[in-house]
Amino acid sequence: MEKIKRVSSIAVTIGLLLLGALVLCTGIGVADSAKEETTAADIQELVEALDEDAHDLVNVSKAIHDNTEKIADDEDLDDALRDKAEAVHVASHDLWQIAGQIQVHVEEFEDLAKDPEANRAEIEDALAEVVEHLEEYYAVLEAKHDLMHQVLFTTPDSHMEYADAMHDAFHEAEAIVEHFTEQAQELSEVIGVAIPKSAIKPVEVPEQYIRMYDEQGEPLVLSAEEVAIEAHGHLCVCGATAFRVTQVAISELWGEEIPTKGELEVTYQHPGKGHKEVFEYLLGSENVTYVKTGDPKHLTLGDNYVYTFVRKDNGATVEMQMKEGVIPEGFFDLRYEVKGFLKGWHEEQPTEAEKAAFKQKFDEAVNNILSMEASEIFEVGR
Fold first, then answer.
1. Residues spanned by the domain of 84
2. 145: closest CA among 174, 102, 179?
3. How far apart are the C-alpha atoms of 154 and 84, rounded to whole Å?
4. Which end of the chain is more exposed for a tag (fewer CB within 10 A), N or C?
5. Residue 113: CA atoms inside 13 Å, Cβ hemisphere, count?
6. pTM metric for this prediction
7. For the chain, what percent of residues have pLDDT higher than 70?
8. DSSP state, 95?
């Protein structure tokens, strides 16, 4: 009898071990399957993002091409301006061609990504080609960056819509290339292939947000970078300042409450388009007033970085001025030397060292405006 019990006990134990093994194996299979499904979904999402970027890059290249043509081909315009527009226009042919080549490679991904394991080598080659083309594209943009701004600053009002469209497309192309590069590297990591690290280094922008309701009562969460690009074409010192000072004004006048677009007015003294366009995007053009103060060629904090906001429903007011130290020392002098030449304020061409120093201080100013505490950026009074 005892022997039978021992045999039964052993049988039960073996059965439990087998059942446990079966459950374990099944669990591993489920986990592996879920992992495979996640990876496939990630790959599909990244391929779709690359496809969208590729189409956008073709479109902005065409926008640069078409709008520079409107300026270059108009015989009523100054010959020097037309020559500069023609040089950017010729470069846009290269941009358009490179963007088309990138789009062809991305279309290859759509089929290759259906079986990434089997097509690993082809995907690796195609991704490497894309990174190389992106660097070529970026090099063309960089080479024509100053010339593009010369066209923008010297185009008469009669053709300013084309110059503005060219300028916006140019900076949008830069942003697309940076995003495209990040997505391509991420896809290579998900698939498990090694591609050359791109020389294109996206600028990290600190995140800042404004919350408000639109006119229909729908909640909005607006980021500084997205607003600047949507309103002005790119993130600059002006756009970052206009965004951040509005954010602080809302906090001062509403506290923890959330305003509705159209309830806040601003009077400002900076001549830059970035201020105007970001303020109008956030507040509505009817609520934005510019007062000319000082010399636009030689900006100062006291003359040009002063703001008055009014809450329209109760008349509450807040005044702000940017503090010393937010914008790096020497920024305004370099602005005059570099941008002043492009705007025709003087005839002495800036050196490469001056242009590099201006870009460094420009990026530092944007970073300070978006990363420092509000109390470090603005003097606030009522």
1. 34-191
2. 174
3. 10
4. N
5. 24
6. 0.73
7. 88
8. H
